[in-house]
Amino acid sequence: MNETHKFTPDFNRMISIVMFNTMGFFFLDYLIPVVISQILGASGLEIGLIFAVQTLGHTISSFFVGFLTDKVKHKKTLIKIGFLCNCCLSNETSLN
Fold first, then answer.
1. Do the domain assignments include residue 55?
2. What pLDDT band is residue 2 in, cutting at 50, 70 and 90?
3. Would you say 70 and 64 are in contact if contact means Cβ atoms under 8 Å apart?
4. Range of the domain at 63
5. How many domains is the chain built from?
6. Is residue 14 part of a domain?
7. Which residues neighbour 20 within 8 Å (Cβ) at sequence distance 6 or greater?
């Protein structure tokens, strides 16, 4: 089998998207404890609880998102659902 036919045509593009996405989350995860401790004055226990809740949320939502991506065949529909969920969550947190 030829090396060029080993992957789908958009493989390199997807790898670059995943790489930049991972770098963004790495820097965001680095800044969260700094901002929480210096600006909001949180203790080490509170920072740990925030990361624990964040990890639990990612774990629970990954099951739902995995099921959703298997059922929805159109990429634009998934983008719209994600945008709607993001808007709802940002409105909820801004009201508190």
1. yes
2. low
3. no
4. 3-71
5. 1
6. yes
7. none
